[in-house]
Amino acid sequence: MTMPLDNLEINEAIAAQFAQLVLDCIEREYPNSILRWAESDEDIKSPRQLTPAFYGCLDWHSAVHGHWLLVRLLRHFPEASFNAASKQALGQSLTPEKIQGEIAHFQRRPFFEFPYGVAWFLQLVAELHEWNHAQAKEWRVVLEPLEKLIADNLQRWINELKLPNRTGVHSQTAFALGLMLDWARITENTDFTQLLENKARQFYLSDRNYSLQFEPLGYDFLSPGLAEADLMRRILPTTDFTDWLTNFLPQIPIDNSVNWLEPARVDNPQDYMQAHFYGLNLSRAWMLEGIISGLANSDRRIKTLRSAALHHRQHGLTDVVIEHYAASHWLGTFAVYLLTNRGLQGQII
Fold it and tell me: Which of 10, 144, 147, 205 qualifies as a FRET site for 312, CA 20 to 30 Å off?
């Protein structure tokens, strides 16, 4: 099943499809991708035993952002038909007992799923924090001990981080810092906000002449260059960001062309690595829109950036394949993040 070409905005029917993707996998333990260092038999257990709240959807981070997707759609469509099933699924996962199991795992493995997975966990926290709903407030309280542990571990990890990871997959630094920064601001954690802003400036402020022609670097689902720009627009004033972008991506044309950044193609949608390109098109679209939001309305590059964003949005949404688990276990999150403008300044409900 693919998203119809003319549905480039979200509605309840489309939201229901994305919610169902998560409901179909949130308790599906296998297949499961387990990438971890084992020190003892304690680390050789089933996914459900190791991480009892977030074990489905192939891997921990996909389970986490699947929960985020359900919360995000509940906020946008409070009367939708999928709400009862979504709340039931969230209620089964977000219990004090299961979160204690997650805490125990992070106490043994402090940097588990760093930085990508924990960045999505903080997005889940941020979503619940903003949602003025009694049940959301209860889930928010349940997650607080795990949030604190992860934030403490992150502070140590960020302080010790000497160089950014500039790949286009889970270990990339810029994308994760952006999600973390949004969480820190939403929860009014000023110390963590300052830590993230300082690290972003340390890593990226002096970057120049990045070439997008080398992307994707492999089976990327994130653009290293656009993610960096999408992060810097979060921390720099408009004038400063305008100058920084000129130096960082001088090749952005002003002729409203889309040829300078073509969407990635997937030839085999059942290949778990090739399926990353679906996500790449969607994440490029929201990062381009994020970059636009950091520029003055008079900037001559906006038409070109907007054309490229629309081009990638069209390809990403029309190519959302949901028959095979290679895409269905995670891609809905990227589509919902894009369609609900989650990362855009001034457009977070």
Answer: 205
